[in-house]
Amino acid sequence: MNPLVEQLRHRLVVSCQAYPGEPMRDPDTMRRVALAVARGGAAGIRAQGLADIAAIRDAVDLPLIGLWKDGDDDVFITPTLDHALAVARAGAHVVALDGTARPRPDGRTLGETVAAVKERTGALVMADCSTLEEGVGAAAAGADLVGTTLAGYTAYTSKQPGPDLDLVARLATAIDVPVVAEGRIHRPEQAAQALRAGAWTVVVGTAITHPTTITGWFASAVAEAR
Ligand SMILES: CC(=O)N[C@H](C=O)[C@@H](O)[C@H](O)[C@H](O)COP(=O)(O)O
Description:
- This protein is of the alpha/beta class.
- The chain has one domain (3-225): TIM Barrel (Alpha-Beta Barrel).
- It is 43% helix and 16% strand.
- The chain contains ten helices and eight strands.
- An eight-stranded parallel barrel has the order 1-2-3-4-5-6-7-8, surrounded by seven helices.
- It is globular.
- Bound molecules: N-acetylmannosamine-6-phosphate.
């Protein structure tokens, strides 16, 4: 087992992302958010965009999963090999990329992409998947980590309110590659359930680092109680 992957075993990774046009969309802000979650016990950081990745890599001494969201097409998480190489060069220890079997904008297969990232950069690869079949395919393609990130975000999967713990469990049984539970983990007990379902690592984003959404949860509850 790679030592960096070992470091993440049964630990919490916090995704520090702000979306286009939002007030916190700024690399220095994300750097500070990453420093803050490190103090709280995060064992790793997931970050989006080359500038955020570079700023966080310099400031935070934790394993860093990087991605680059680009485009409005189906495949938007680190969609091409060039994106993946740039993410690695910006300082990510692990490159997170689309792990589905959908056509990629550069025409490369997932296997070709994973092999090229590993050969050319030495970074590890996390495949963001939405189904069991995709996870099995990503493991066969050489991914070092397989995530449930895209469950509920592809045209052929349905979005549950909470995390897809069933997919976590089925993946953990089916593949030898560590499974990352990611997506709609909104409460601490759901993170614990994900580990009990067989996850190697749990990634939480919105519920820790997206104040607009968290505020919306509270504002709705207050509005309903009025
Ligand atoms: C589908 C997609 O684009 N997911 C993204 C992947 O990096 C992020 O927008 C999510 O915040 C991240 O996966 C963590 O999930 P959650 O924020 O639900 O804890």
